[in-house]
# Entry
Amino acid sequence: MERCNAEVASSVRKINPDQHRQKREDILAAAAHCFARHGFRGASIASICGEAGISPGHLYHYFESKEDIVEAIADTVVDRAAERFAEAASGGSVISTLVSQLEWSLARPGHFGTLLYFDMLAESGRTAGIARLLHNHHRKLSALLVDLLRHGQRQGEVEQSLDLDVTARMLMSVLEGSKTLALGEARRDGPAYIASFSRLLARFLMPSERA
# Structure
């Protein structure tokens, strides 16, 4: 028994963290393509494994379920937002950072993330686990926005009297809702959307003497 445990421990120690991370990313990319083609309900574990070129047993070493995979995809969205918001904290503009979020969506009208988001909204009305996942996703994004707005207040770019929690939730609703623009003539009308959004943010966020 001791020899068996030692062999197991040795195999665990031999796991390459870079390879493990890359395999997770490969599975997430495969799942994203399956979700985009078939939707959350239509995409099976078998189809995800086929896309990733692995067995179901191998996949379960990395993720416990489809919900677990979707949560990991949502976390990558939060991580990307955190990186962009960190740029504002290091000297960028709060408003330009928020506008860049809209620009990103409009530049990718068929991006799987947009399609998956709407699919998850619909699924959240049927599946409690997905509803909890979306709630947690929105909570994390809202916390990032609060930090960004607080930085803006320190820089004199954001009105001091604003309730940051409420403002963050309102901004998140606008940014998430703007994904619907990417389903229309986003490339043609994108500049007009961006210009209007910039003016809206300036009037809503900036101190009256600067707006």
